[in-house]
Amino acid sequence: MESKPTLYIVPTPIGNLDDITQRALTVLAQVDLIACEDTRHSGKLLSHFGIKTKTLSVHDHNERQRAQWLISKLDSGESIALVSDAGTPLISDPGYHLVSQVRAAGHPVVPLPGPCAATTALCAAGLPSDRFSFEGFLPAKSKGRQDKLQALLQEPRTMIFYESPRRVLDTLADVVAVMGPDRDVVLAREITKTFETIEGRPAAQLLEWLQEDDNRTRGEMVLMIAGFRMQDDTLPAETVKALKLLAQELPLKKAAAITAELFGQKKNALYKYGLEQGW
83 vs 131, 163, 269, 275, CA distance in Å? Predict the structure, then answer.
């Protein structure tokens, strides 16, 4: 541990308690205070590992107010660990305001590596993982969801969302409506837990699969949507050939602009196609 007062960002298991690291256990046992999203939830974890460090609730509704008090603790020489209910703090969990204010106050913030549902699910999804976009939770209402999905319609990267059991069917219905029934989607639920399930199908088929059994819509969920891919036959062969040749000599953006001018195509579409091909 650091010799001076420090805020530690400590990931905790998303299901399987064996996933906690030895370093996380050491930090949680040795800091002066643990800031928890829910002290009752974290209390079970701490009790399991025999950790008796004092806890304090720091969640979405009180984080801004608690931040200055926690900074005063750092000022007085105490070190603090920040944990969320599960996974890595700040990733669709509280902590941004606290970390921002602690850094502004001049105290060190030390992140520990550890569990994260988004990256854990992506590793087993079978979707491209070299480039991805984490989008957190989609809006709760259909209009907001569809607007967000529409804005991401031509996003070329794999998109990762967190989703709740009570909304997953409606969300998939909106994916079908906006992105089409054939867009590949992978649902990962209860990652690292007893009933872990990872199922990938075209959006419409995945929706039907979920509707067949209520048990399939239970638990914590990660929804991964394949990025937009322009089909090879969408562009004339001569356009593709020209773009490829120009991209060998020029930056892709410039090559796309010239090709668009020559062949009457959309510059952005050509640029995205070139990115997908790795040109």
Answer: 27, 21, 43, 38
